[in-house]
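Hey,

Quick one before I head out. I ran the complex with protoporphyrin IX containing FE overnight. Inputs first:
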Amino acid sequence: MWLSNSSVGRKFIMALTGACLVLFVTFHCLMNAIAICWPAAYNSVCEFLGANWYALIASAGLAVLIILHIIYAMMLTVQNRKARGNDRYAISRRPKTVEWSSQNMFVLGVVILAFLAVHMIQFWAKMQLQEIRGVHDVLPPAAGTLFIQEAFSQVWTPIVYIIGFIALWFHLNHGFWSMFQSVGWDSTVWIPRLKKIALWWTSIVVLLFIAQAIVFTVKANDNYYKTDPTLRMQYKEMLVPMFEKDFGPDAAQAINAAPYEQMEQMMRGTLSQMENPEAQAYFQNDPEFPKRYECVKNTVALLDYLSVDEAPAADIVPNNMQSPNK
Ligand code: HEM
């Protein structure tokens, strides 16, 4: 097949997938800017996308693009090595005009891939993957800002990310204009212009990523994403569907209507009642009890995570949180 057998076909695939990835990275950078300027709106977007069919199709499409880009990069690297034959180590004698990044595109790609592996573990695996699996962990999967909090409160995160961004700068800067050359646009007028556009575009995107990583680190270390009242209310609202499922509409309504502090009091009170040995003995034949206990325990674990140097609230249990079998 022309696209995989011929050198031009392979370069065409590299250029096409590369162009889509440049657009994705630019879009992602703009999404991160929303997380900085309007964190609650960012969470709403995460909640809207979640693991819905359109988000899953987009993620699968992106994964296909990344995989194709990597496979064709490997094929082209092997092909170039074969073409050079015994002279493969002559790379160090290349003319000075051959840019450093052009000689190291594959290595730069590997560094970006390593960054992506860390990044997916920190975000995608805890957000979209959890929703796909239908697992309810302590942090609600739609709470993007809490995963930013988690990731950027680790000292090593900004270091690893900035190394990834620098590799991304070199990789995009070269890839951006060379993809036009690959598809035959080799004009002596346009290549210098494209190089300039590539330099500006990638520098702006990568500088924005670096600035965002710094802002996220400062805010996470300040516990901003845990303590901001608007975000806290939003995290509380994310619990409503879970309560609706496990306790019914009245409890869900009570959670929805209560201010954050009151909800915290309810939950802590409910948990201590549920953990009371007498209550456990009383409820042992209630088939609903285990999932309700799990739901309240997870909620209190989230509240513990969100409380920063705050004493636990007093026990107050409203009637609508008690088991209907009681
Ligand atoms: C400060 C920098 C960044 C932050 C805070 C950040 C944050 C995030 C978040 C919150 C998600 C959502 C996960 C989900 O909903 O499943 C995500 C997904 C992703 N990010 Fe980043 N990101 C950053 C930089 C980057 C860079 C530089 C790249 C590429 C080189 C990248 C590639 C991806 C990919 C491929 C996904 C998966 C998208 C999908 O599942 O559709 N990210 N990121």
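The radius of gyration is 26 Å.

Talk tomorrow,
K.
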